[in-house]
Amino acid sequence: xxxxxxxxxxxxxxxxxxxxxxxxxxxxxxxxxxxxxxxxxxxxxxxxxxxxxxxxxxxxxxxxxxxxxxxxxxxxxxxxxxxxxxxxxxxxxxxxxxxxxxxxxxxxxxxxxxxxxxxxxxxxxxxxxxxxxxxxxxxxxxxxxxxxxxxxxxxxxxxxxxxxxx
Length: 166
Description:
Blueprint: E1 2-6, H1 11-22, E2 26-31, E3 44-47, H2 53-60, E4 65-68, H3 82-100, E5 105-108, H4 112-116, H5 118-124, H6 150-157
Parallel strand pairs: 1-2, 1-4, 2-3, 4-5
Helix pairs in contact: 2-3, 3-5
């Protein structure tokens, strides 16, 4: 399997890459710049910014699965809009690039604060990306991993939310 890992040079990315390599998979490390987390590993490094859709399409060509770990976390809010840009627009760009490249599987990792900001979830829920998720007004948890969104995600993308990576 050929896997792309965004946020490859972060703590989670480096650990996931080691596990994928140990399992015998080929890994494309995708990040803004190469870092210590991937030094000495047998990966293909691709420079990409989640805010640049063409860079992501280049990174995902020929990939079977994308593990999206790229994110920015802030405990002080988002005064400059960077958290929103990376964690919402970046996720949408990544999902669109994965679809455009025929990626078979997508694994998205998010942070706890994302689950507490309903307005962010409503805008980042992949199957509801054209507008606010209709489930959000019902008090249900929403997001790409929610059982409420999974049927719509499957219908829209053809991805199977119950599928396991082998």
